[in-house]
Structure formats: C-alpha cells, structure tokens
Amino acid sequence: MIRYRGKKNVIDKVKEFDAFTKVPEEYVDSTPVGGTFSIITLFIIVCLIYSEVTYFLDSNLVFKFMPDTDMDEKLRINIDITVAMPCSNLGADILDSTSQSVFGFGELQEEDTWFELTQEQQDSFDAVKYLNSYLREEYHSLWQLLWKKGHGSVRATIPPRKNKPNRRPDACRLHGVLTLNKVAGNFHITAGKSLHLPRGHIHLNMLFDDTPQNFSHRIHRLSFGSPANGMIYPLEGDEKITTDESMLYQYFIEVVPTDVDTTFESIKTFQYSVKELERPISHTHGSHGVPGIFLKYDMGAIKIKVYQERENLLQFMLRLFSIIGGIYVIFRFLNSIVLTLRTAFVNKVAPDVLDRLSEKPPKVHPLLVPTNLLVPDGPDLIRQ
User: For 221-230, how does the pLDDT look when each residue is reduced to its tens digit (9 = 90+)?
Assistant: First the structure.
C-alpha cells in the first residue's frame, strides 16, 4: 500500500475530465410549479418517444416502375370457374401468339355440379362477393393497409354441398393451374369439345345448335402467378347471370409483372386490371361472334417492384434526442417564467409571505438536540 500512496486511481482521473457543471443540492429549490412541469414534461416526452418509435417501425412503401426484360419467364394462371352448363357440353382451351399446342399448358379438371347454391353456400359466396367488391372500390384508401398488414386475397371458396338435388348436374366447375408462355393469349370457354389441329383447334359447337346454352358463371378464382399478400384480383368473386342462350362475355386483362419484397414475403408474381364487355349474339341484328366466356390477356411492358424502405437508424436517434432535449428546454424556460412572475406578484402583494416561504429551518444534528435530563445535585450524587 505504501507504493501507491499519493497516486490517483482511474476513477479520480476520469472525474478530472468531467466538463458538465453540477449544482449543489443545497442550492436547488423544489417548488410545486417545478414538480407540475416535470410531470407534464415526462408525460409529453413518453408520448413523443412512443410516436417516433411507431413511425420508425412503420416503414415507407415504395412502388418502383422498370422495364420488364425477363421474357423467358413462364406465366401461371390459376382458374376456378363454375359455368351453368354440363361439362359434356363445354370446352375450355387457350390460344396464345406462339401457336403452341394447348396440351403443353396443362389441363383443367372438370367437375359436374349444380349451379344453384344452397342457402349456406349462397351466404358464403355473397359475403366474399361483397368484401371483394368493397376492396376494389376502396383500394385507393386502403392500399397501404393491405400491403403492410399482409392482407391475403379473399377467394370465393364456398362450403361443400350437404344435400344433393334429385336431378342431374346442370353446371360444370373448371379448376386447375395452367403454365403459359409470357405472351398475349386467349383463354375461352364455349360450347362443344375442342378438336386440335396442327395450326390451332376448333370447337364442335355445331352439334349443339338445338341444345340450350347458358353461360351464366361464377368466378371463384382467377389470378396469375403465385398468390401474394396485398394484391386485389378484380375478377374473383364475380357472378354473371343471364337468361339469353347466346351471350358473349369478354374480359380484356392487362397482366403486370410484380416483384414483392415486404416484411411478410419476397416473391415474384403478377397482378392485373380488367375491362368487361358482354353482348348477346344475334346474326340477324349484326351482332356476330361465338357465345361463350373469353378471357383475353396481354402482358404489360412495365414491371412493378414493391418494397419497404426504412429510415436510417442514426437519423432516428438524432431526431429522438433532439425532441427530448427540445421539450426539456422549453418546459424549463416556461418554469423559469412562471417562477419569475410568481415572485414578482408575491413581492408586490405580500412581501412578508415570500420571506416566510423562503426561510428554511436550520439543520441540527440529532445528537446535538438538547433534552430535558434530570441531573442530581452534587451532594446528592456524593451521597449516592
């Protein structure tokens, strides 16, 4: 211990570099006004810190447009449509601009069913129909919520039928996944099975001239690519009912490649916009065509990249500290003003009150406080 006598330890050396002024405790005057301002200051600082942290965690959603150069990519189409005609009378095919055989795209499954829904199925379909319609109409006010919160597409998946009618099925459900070329094409459902030829195909619908045709349909699912959160597929949940036997429904679809990179997922997919046209076929009135359901799709030249952009952590910390320091300085300044006004008012109205309030009782050590001790006199002490 003698070797270290007179030497300063590390803590003492650090204290020498303390450049922040300290006010002795005996010079600090605590007042009710200062306590009130301290509570208000603490409450405001906590609220602002919570707001800033919430804003930092809530990242900005960025949509970036760029040319689509990936021409070798395949296009997957997801289909689930119910048509009010038996499967034996329908044919579904795809033609694209490459004239590739339709057998190379895949095959849709055909399932005989009934077009009229039970009450439970109708309620379920109407609920999804209403929800999808609302999301399409209010998309511009809900798009941030849909993308950031990971909203998934609500498909019109109806519950299975519990009681089957005592009649033959009068509808056909076509569902499945087809892998297409990334070019313009035409997916169509019309009367008659298709006959494939080297340069295309034809539908043998001339055999069904006397057979009633009803192309009323429900679209349970129609999307391109892998399903992604935040997207709205306009045709899902749509229903078309007609009493005309020669009705043509046309959907003109613009498919846009979309790369999604958000908190919930990172995926390459497609979204689309659609225009609808329906008209009855009447050759005598000049409305020519083939009755059926035609979905004509085309690829957009622009690709959309969706990603979330967060603020720099250093900027967030600097803004947070500046808010805390600014609130503290402002309320300290207000506290000084209020105390100055109070002092001036008391000096003018009742100066004696201020003197009594400013007086502090002297601090006396407990051991120095006199007590009433009964000490016996000298002679009595000697006698004892």
Answer: 899 988 877 7
Contacts from 157-161 at CB under 8 Å and sequence distance 24+? 157/124, 157/128, 157/220, 158/117, 158/121, 158/124, 158/125, 158/220, 159/120, 159/121, 159/124, 161/113, 161/114, 161/118, 161/121
DSSP-assigned beta bridge partners for residue 249: 278, 293
Supply 320's token pair: 């947070």
Residues 6+ apart with CB under 8 A from 170: 84, 85, 86, 114, 115
- Residue 129's φ and ψ, nearest 5 degrees, are -60, -45
Q: Distance between CA atoms of 69 and 306, rounded to whole angstroms? A: 17
Reading the block at residue 152, the tokens are: 């998934």
Q: Which long-range contacts (CB under 8 A, 24 or more apart) does 343-351 make?
A: none
pLDDT in tens, 339-381: 788 778 777 776 665 555 555 555 555 555 555 555 555 555 4
Alpha-helical segments (H) within the chain: 10-16, 32-57, 119-137, 139-148, 313-349, 351-358, 378-383
30 vs 51: CA distance, rounded Å: 31
Residues 230 and 261: beta-carbon distance below 8 Å: no
Give Cα 119 distance to the centre of its chain: 33
Question: By C-alpha distance, which of 333, 338, 91 is closest to 215?
Answer: 91
132 vs 141: CA distance, rounded Å: 15
Which is more confidently placed, 191 or 310?
A: 191
On whether the CB atoms of residues 232 and 146 are closer than 8 A, the answer is yes
Residue 155 DSSP SS3: coil
pLDDT tens figures, 115-140? 988 888 888 888 888 888 887 787 77
Closest CA to 170 of 84, 90, 64: 84
- Tell me the CA distances in angstroms from 180 to 73, 96, 254, one per residue in order: 9, 8, 15
- DSSP code at position 72: S
pLDDT the model gives residue 83: 92
Contact present, 242 and 216 (Cβ < 8 Å): yes
Terminus-to-terminus CA distance in the chain, angstroms? 53
* Residue with token string 């400013």: 358
CB contact set of 286 (below 8 Å; sequence gap of 6+): none
What would the two tokens of residue 294 be?
């035609």
